Amino acid sequence: MAQRRALLWLVVAAGMPLLVGGCAVDNGLPADLAARLADHGVPLRIKRSHAPLTSRAGVIVIARDPALEQRIVAAFALIRIERSDLRFAKRMPADLAAHPDLALWGVDGRPTSLRLRGGGQLEYLYLVTTAEEATLLAEYAYS
């Protein structure tokens, strides 16, 4: 009996990395957005990202690179948004919105430019720049 129990624990312990390795750590948006940008010839080097499993939204932070930022703006026809435009305030993280040197570009309303490889769709895409870094904000659209 003890040998069977030891064997069972060995099998469980050996299989744990397979189970844990298959678990998602985010909702998939950072990878989908990076792939969509790559389709437009815009490779990203992500510094950090946050896309909780319980949300349709996600944030990708990249290093400042004005040339890369202009390629993102051009690829998705993002428009310059004034800081005072309150339509975008609800989607902006408070710490980012309060940044003194913020510049903002975006598009919303499920444009065809935000269709994903697998047939999904993004509701919006914003590019927010500060002196230190650039942030991409996006959200999956409801089906």
pLDDT averaged residue by residue: 82
The coarse overall form would be: globular
Task: Extract low-pLDDT stretches.
Answer: 10-21
Summarize the helix and strand pattern as letters. HHEEHEHEEE
- Physical arrangement of strands within the biggest beta sheet: 1-2-6-5-4-3
The main sheet comes to: 6 strands, antiparallel
By DSSP, the count of extended strands is 6
Number of H- or I-type helical stretches: 4
Helix content: 25-40%
Radius of gyration computed on alpha carbons: 20 Å
How are the elements arranged and paired?
Blueprint: H1 2-21, H2 29-39, E1 46-50, E2 57-63, H3 66-75, E3 79-81, H4 94-97, E4 103-108, E5 122-129, E6 133-140
Antiparallel strand pairs: 1-2, 2-6, 3-4, 4-5, 5-6
Describe the structure concisely:
The chain contains four helices and six strands.
Structure description:
With 143 residues, the chain is an alpha+beta fold. It is built from four helices and six strands, in the order H-H-E-E-H-E-H-E-E-E. The chain has helices at 2-21, 29-39, 66-75, 94-97, and strands spanning 46-50, 57-63, 79-81, 103-108, 122-129, 133-140. The protein has a six-stranded antiparallel β-sheet, covered by helices on one side. The longest helix is centred in the N-terminal third of the chain and has 20 residues, at 2-21. It starts with a helix and ends with a strand. 21% of the residues are buried. The model is unreliable at 10-21 (pLDDT under 50).
